[in-house]
Design goal:
Blueprint lengths: L5 E2 L2 H13 L5 H19 L10 E5 L3 H15 L4 E5 L6 H9 L3 E4 L13 E5 L11 H12 L4 E4 L23 E5 L9 H6 L2 E5 L14 E3 L18 E5 L7 H12 L4 E6 L4 H7 L4 E4 L3 H7 L5 E6 L5 H13 L3 E4 L2 H4 L5 H5 L6 E3 L3 H7 L1 H8 L10 H12 L2 E4 L3 E5 L5 E5 L14 H15 L3 H19 L7 H13 L1
Parallel strand pairs: 2-3, 2-5, 3-4, 5-6, 6-7, 7-8, 9-18, 10-11, 10-13, 11-12, 13-14, 14-15, 15-16
Antiparallel strand pairs: 1-9, 16-17, 17-18
Helix pairs in contact: 2-3, 2-4, 3-4, 7-16, 7-18, 9-10, 13-14, 14-15, 16-17, 17-18
């Protein structure tokens, strides 16, 4: 089966399962059996020597269908020669879980037999307490048990998702602290909570298992998708103007570094021409640092309007190192031109005290690229909803926040972070996660956001639409950082693009 980029909510996954069961081809029990067998195979493949070493598995089974999966996992691991114990947190309360429990003939122990410091005597702990259907916080007793086992050095596996995390938002429900899993095994498609919020940080490696639901996949409806690299990133034949002209606005004397990073990124990602426009007093220092990037002067809004009479300029980037006063003067002129525009950093901060003034001037060719702090200043109510404790699921998510922000602003919004989320004003959304085994922690360095802004501007100049430009830039940004690894600084990112792009060819 070809790789699928769709990511589901809990509701969408339930719709797919219900479509399969209502077809009379599948039953809940058959799906549970396949899920448990696939999870056992994934676990055994991840720790191929554990059975031979006699390292036992403790499987924590809740009373719902996630617990039923746990009983099936127990049976299949035992059949592979693993020493297995099941900890039953309660009597099964679904027909499918009850049937799975009845088929388990091995050792079952009560919760009282396992203490928080028991992990030293356990080879592997498998969490099958709550799964994706969670709507309430995990009990403190269970959360403490998971923390204690994990802190002893015992590897932790999450079945579907780590218990206590909302599968639709990735947020931990209630005031509990959860440990980090080494492996998460889920079924059919990833869920939003595997990438967003705490889910992306605590889930470890994500293994998605096929359990035969593909014939009913369309029952999920419209889904958020993960960004995948497009061959459109590669340049076609043509001359420099065939690939667009990007204009990067720079700040005053001594403030040009961020704009230079953005300009280099726009050029490296394929824009045919890139011009950096600075106040006249800052031109010499920028000219001394740039060769392939052209230099021009823009002192005020009138001079910017004059430059924009050149119809070959297809995209602008304002914000990196621009200065708040300069941003406040130049942003309205850039927006009034009707060109594609990226607004970042100072171009967002300049309107923090009155974001509605900015929103009134935005249009559908604009991309906003805030980090969490900038997002909080532009959309304080949405940011506050993300910070408030999530008492029940499904919880308000970064995806919800970005969709509402894009609709309010009337522009595409890219909220930066390990779980980068992008939404169009109409609510079409994409994820570009750099979490779990795909983490890119070296991006947490000064200037990396300026590079991302320049990348988006370069793709807009080449003719990409706003959401495609934002998504493809976010993917390439993270992939370049992953390949470079430790020691990355912002200047390394544009230099790393050619190797990634070459592999796409």
């Amino acid at each position: 089966m070809a790789e699928d980029s769709r990511v589901l909510t809990t509701r969408q996954m339930r719709a797919v399962e219900e479509a399969a069961i209502s077809s009379a081809i599948e039953t809940g029990a058959s799906l549970m059996e396949r899920a448990g067998r696939a999870a056992a195979e994934a676990i055994a493949a991840h720790w191929p020597d554990f059975a031979a070493q006699g390292r036992d598995a403790l499987i924590l089974c809740g009373s719902g269908n996630n617990g039923g999966d746990g009983y099936v996992i127990a049976r299949h691991l035992a059949n592979r020669g693993w020493p297995v114990r099941v900890l039953a947190a309660g009597r099964p309360r679904t027909v499918e879980a009850e049937g799975a429990a009845e088929l388990w003939r091995g050792k079952t122990v009560p919760l009282s037999e396992i203490t928080r410091d028991s992990g030293r005597g356990i080879g592997l702990c498998i969490d099958a307490f709550l799964g994706t259907g969670i709507t309430r916080p995990l009990a403190q007793e269970i959360a403490g048990l998971l923390r204690g086992i994990a802190s002893s050095g015992c590897p932790l596996v999450a079945v579907d998702i780590l218990s206590g995390i909302c599968a639709s938002s990735g947020r931990v429900l209630g005031d509990v602290t959860l440990p980090e899993a080494e492996l998460t095994v889920t079924f059919h498609r990833p869920k939003l909570g595997h990438f967003l919020g705490d889910g992306g940080l605590l889930g470890g490696r994500l293994q998605v298992c096929d359990i035969g639901l593909e014939p009913w996949a369309e029952a999920a409806g419209d889904c958020v998708t993960q960004v995948r690299p497009s061959s459109a990133l590669l340049k076609r034949q043509g001359h420099k103007y065939s690939h667009g002209h990007a204009l990067i606005l720079a700040g005053g004397r001594g403030k040009g570094g961020a704009a230079r990073l953005a300009a280099h990124a726009a050029l490296r990602i394929g824009a045919g021409l890139v011009t950096l426009a600075a106040p006249v007093e800052a031109v010499p220092e920028n000219a001394a640092r740039l060769d392939a990037v052209m230099i021009d002067t823009v002192d005020d809004s009138a001079s910017l309007a004059g430059k924009l009479r050149d119809t070959r300029i297809g995209a602008l980037c304002l914000g990196p190192g621009l200065g708040l006063d300069r941003a406040h003067a130049l942003v309205p002129t850039a927006l009034a031109s009707g060109r594609s525009v990226v607004l970042d950093a100072d171009a967002l901060g300049a309107f923090a005290d009155g974001p509605d003034v900015l929103f009134a001037e935005l249009h559908d060719k604009v991309v906003l690229t805030p980090h969490e702090g900038e997002f909080a200043r532009l959309f304080p109510d949405l940011s506050r909803a993300l910070r408030d404790d999530a008492a029940k699921g499904p919880a308000f998510s970064r995806l919800d926040a970005v969709r509402l922000a894009a609709a309010r602003a009337g522009a595409t919004v890219l909220l930066k972070g390990p779980d980068t989320v992008i939404s169009s004003p109409a609510g079409r959304a994409w994820l570009s996660p750099a979490t779990g085994e795909n983490a890119a922690p070296w991006l947490a360095t000064a200037g990396s956001g300026d590079v991302l802004s320049g990348m988006i501007a370069g793709l807009l100049a080449r003719g990409f639409d706003t959401t495609e430009a934002a998504g493809q830039a976010a993917w390439l940004h993270a992939e370049t950082a992953r390949r470079f690894g430790p020691g990355l600084i912002a200047e390394d990112l544009p230099r790393g693009f050619p190797g990634v792009l070459r592999d796409l060819a």
